[in-house]
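Worked example 4.2. Below are the chains of a multi-component assembly; read each line carefully before continuing.
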Amino acid sequence: AVKELFPDVKITIGPTIENGFYYDFDLDQSFSDEILEKIENKMKELAKLKQEIVRHEVSTGEAVDIFSKLGESYKVEIIEQINPDDTITMYKQSSFTDLCRGPHVSNTSKIKHFKLLSTSGAYWKGDEKNKMLQRIYGTVFSTKDALKTHLHNIEEAKKRDHRKLGKELKLFTFDDEVGPGLPLWLPNGAVIVEELENLAKEYEKNGGYDLVRTPHLTKGALYEKSGHLDHYKESMYPAMDVDGTEYYVKPMNCPHHHKIYAALPKSYRDLPVRLAEYGTCYRYEKSGQLFGLMRVRSLQMNDAHIYCTKDQFKNEFLKVCNMYLKYFEIFGIERYSMRLSLHSAEELGKKYVDEPELWLETEKWVREALIEGGFDFEEVPGEAAFYGPKIDVQVWSAIGKEFTLATNQVDFAVPSKFNLNYVDEDGESKTPLCIHRAPLGTHERFIGFLIEHFGGDFPLWLAPVQAVVLPLSDKFTDYAKLVVNSLKADGLRVKLNDRADKIGSKIRQAELEKINYMLIVGEKESFDGTVSIRKRFEGDLGVEDLDVFKQKLIEEIKNRRLAHRKETATETE
RNA sequence: GCCACCGUAACUCAGUUGGUAGAGUGCGAAAUUCGUAAUUUCGAAGUCAGCAGUUCGAUCCUGCUCGGUGGCUCCA
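Applying the procedure described above to all two chains together yields the following structure tokens:
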């Protein structure tokens, strides 16, 4: 269809992807929405024509001739990279010939239920130094219903988008005068931040971590030593001159933690040393990269560095992995994948520190630890940190983007650069290994993810407002205040809605704000010392003694119980 | 950073084929005193993202800047 509408277009590649396909074209104009619609209509026309799609097998030489004559230089480039002895398959549909491994449907009428979704630029061969091509994304299904369901799901997912819910629930905001990628936590969002920090502190203290604090600014020399200026300068905020010395805002916490380790001499008896901090970092992410809370320029990382001996490594590494699992259980995170990110031999000395043996050795340890711990994981070469292999936990945002939520890395390189050491049993000075870990990732990304994960319906312990007290009329405001104060005295986050609205309206407001509990008080309640309880989604739960109910709330919060989500009418439709 | 698109009240959006704007929600005031998802009336609120150009006149056309969106590239 594109070839018919734009005879000058050069075709490149067009694979299937999850939930659809794309095709990249070299064209000196871009596809507008109107053009996309025209292409879709042309596709429908062609489908009706029932054009046959015929497979041809040719040699690479013949294929080069054919595509050269057609002026399809990108196809020629692809064929030239294929083994010359291989057979090339082409598919011909009317006057159009494409290079394709296949298989294909037998004729165009088989394609009925499709939709072109969007356009974008995309670099040829995914390299930003190459020409930018015009990409069309689309999707196709075997039945009309399946297509409709898919499109409906896309719309539903947009409703859970953390950027939309973040605004509606007043969790965070961005301001032009503050700067892109620099989120401001509103009071509601700050509550979630605080609860996460409490969770982390609780688990880290129990896990034998020591909490530390470090400055946001540091001399450039530290990052020269760590190697970060070498590897990541372009994504650090530019240096500031302070009395003739270059200072940077910190893009990560590791060097500071290394310095804390080094501040006092260590014996093997001190190891493992576990230093934890919710560290604030700044990274100059490219403008096109920013994405709501998921990719920002200021971030607070659930960071910690564990310094241990080789013998302790496996145990420490598994403990960290288990901490991840415990967190995932708390949040009910079930859809994730663990990725073992390895180095690639070709990039040793460039992207990765040039220690081939140490790479293989540490990768082996990590692999063994994962297998021993019974974790499912996928190995991906070329994704490691420059100083060692890592485990990334991948999750997906509501609109389908993949993100690394948490990470657990081995560092065999930087400790020696920092002259970190400990005196071993035999009196020798040795260099410890370092495990970098961030099971809750950053506040920004983790909360962005949680907003979508819960669809804004936070469990009670995370909810910015846990209960709202709704007096039926002015006459019961005094009692309502008494209820509010009683709950607040026990640390509960409670609001009063004493506006002159009808009870139905107040309930509606509370439901829209996704407040867990609504406590309705009128004549009966104020007389009996009770509250009439209504729970989000679940409706009227009846009347209960105030103190009894309060104890139940406190219990629910203490257990960090998950909200069991009921599908609402709008979700199932 | 690259390709494309978008930017109208606090929010969601309508509108002007160039003659300086409107709705709903929210906000403020008054009345209503109410039993489980929307009480009524009145009112305030916008340099139409910013700057420049074209024009008698620009929110509308053009350019640049800023910010956002969909992708690409990148992610210690």
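Take a moment to check your reading of the output against the notes. Chain A has 19 helices and 28 strands. The two ends of chain A are 36 Å apart (CA to CA).
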